[in-house]
Design brief:
Length: about 70
């Protein structure tokens, strides 16, 4: 997959907390650093995000998205 964003940080999902419409996904990117993304519950389901899964934080301007490959 190609993406225009240049800030892609690989890591491991350590927590997925679903709210009413939005989920908070925490990704351990190493060195004790956790990146958190707020994404829709639908996106979590579509991507099949679960704790322990490899994922990447994709950072563009002020947004953090989640990518799996």
């Amino acid at each position: 997959m190609k993406i225009s964003a240049r800030n892609v940080i690989k890591g491991t999902i350590v927590d997925v907390h679903k709210g009413a419409t939005t989920s908070h996904v925490r990704i351990d990117v190493g060195g004790g650093t956790i990146v958190m993304a707020s994404i829709t519950n639908e996106a979590v389901d579509d991507l099949g995000l679960v704790k322990g899964m490899a994922a990447s934080a994709v950072i563009k301007a002020t947004d953090v998205m989640v990518m799996v490959s």
